[in-house]
Amino acid sequence: MLEGSFLSHLVELRARIIRILGVLLIGFLPCAFFARELYTLLAQPLLEKLPQGGQMIATDVATPFFVPMQVAMMLAFVITLPHTLFQIWAFVAPGLYTHEKRLALPIVIGSSLLFFLGMAFAYFAALPVVFEFITYFAPDGVAVMTDISKYLSFVLSMFMAFGVTFEVPIFVIVLVRTGVITVEKLKEIRPYVIVGAFVIAAIFTPPDVISQFMLAVPLCLLYELGIMIAIMMAQQQSQKLPAEPVPHPEKNPLDNEDTSQKKD
Length: 264
Hints:
mainly alpha
């Protein structure tokens, strides 16, 4: 019986993976058709900051083909992410309790939106500042020409850094709701979190103060946002709890005997 149940789960998992890959392939085909334009759009923050006559280069033979295809695949993954999350949710939902389902679905949706918001912040705010800093400090006589594959890996690392940073409220809420840590403890360790935020920013951003602040400051603010949301959720949950009934004093059987004797 257990073996049959395990095999049925494997079959369902395979079906879910096939659906995810199929939809991803369908989303990749139109993106691949516009792969060149997509890479130009991705490289726009750097192209706008290059000096006059500056351009990007490709040092490997197959790089001009594979790098735009990687960008197309990345965009297809982002576009089809709601379907991917739905398939994952449909697979794990039958094994969750009702209160876990109520918590898991908002967390999945919220974490996806926050990750996209972090990527957007990196693209529109952080990357232009970083490339402005890099091109400004380039020595005279040095042509700033970045390899397109190196640029893609750099941009992806920035997207990941800012995307994960914007997940901080979700991490805080999950830790509080699961009882791993209390809100009071989160407030107590706030100074250590601020120091850790700047350490993380120094590791995952280029060596300039502006980009480090642009990663560290949102991390601290989102940490505070997570604490506020956790407090609000705790207050709402406490209001929904039913009031405890007032215990009635137990009657002494001797009292009944005394009253019956008085009646006699």
